Structures are given as C-alpha cells and as structure tokens.
Amino acid sequence: MAKEIIHTDKAPAAIGAYSQAVKAGNTVYLSGQIPLDPVTMTVVEGGFAAETHQMFKNLKAVCEAAGGSLDQIVKLNAFLTDLSNFGTFNEIMGQYMSQPFPARAAIGVASLPKGVQVEADAIMVLGE
C-alpha cells in the first residue's frame, strides 16, 4: 500500500525528521501538534488554555489538508506537562470535537518540545 505525505502551511512546519501526517489507505496518522503559530513558528502566549486552542487549530488544519475533519479522529493521544489541566483540556476538546468522541489517552509527561504544556497526536479514518 502506498503512503501519501500530508502537508499544509496552515499548521506548523515539521521541526524534525517527520511529516505532519501520513495517509495509508483511508487511515491518516497525524503527528503530534504543539501550540506553535504556523506563521511565526513561535509558541502562542496566554497559558494552558491558549496553548490547547492553538494545538487543536493546528490538528484541525492537518485533518483538513488530508481531506477530513476533527470529528473523523478515532484515536487521540494527549500529552500534558501538568495533569491538573486535564479538566481544561476536556472542556476545550469539547469545543473542537463532537460526540461520539474518539478513544483517547491522556499522558502526563515531564516536558514537551519548545517548553509547551500540551501536545496531541491522532489517527483519523476517512469515509470510503
């Protein structure tokens, strides 16, 4: 099966040896998105909530570049440097995704790239 590399200028450019997403068949594997402004490539200011909103905007842009939407995500992995922000994450996630929600893991981590507080990667399945 051939793989298709997904790229959009509406999300931050890869800052390492990876693609924003890879499509194989009707499944899209989305790389982790952090709260970088895609134009300036700097971390957004405003705390955890602002970072989470930007992270979901970036994830949405990659989904759309692959021909899908956030609601087609079947699995989401969330990485938080402080699990006390989990409630805020849930609230913001509900503003970007609707029920039925995807399967999800929320993982507390010591640190993330560029000192951000949140990152998420996902698997999306496109309609046939």
UniProtKB/TrEMBL annotation:
Highest taxon of source: Bacteria
SUPFAM superfamilies in UniProt: YjgF-like
InterPro entries reported in the protein's UniProt record: RidA, RutC-like_sf, YjgF/YER057c/UK114
Similarity comment text for this entry: Belongs to the RutC family.
Protein name from the UniProt record: Reactive intermediate/imine deaminase
Lineage: Bacteria, Pseudomonadati, Pseudomonadota, Betaproteobacteria, Neisseriales
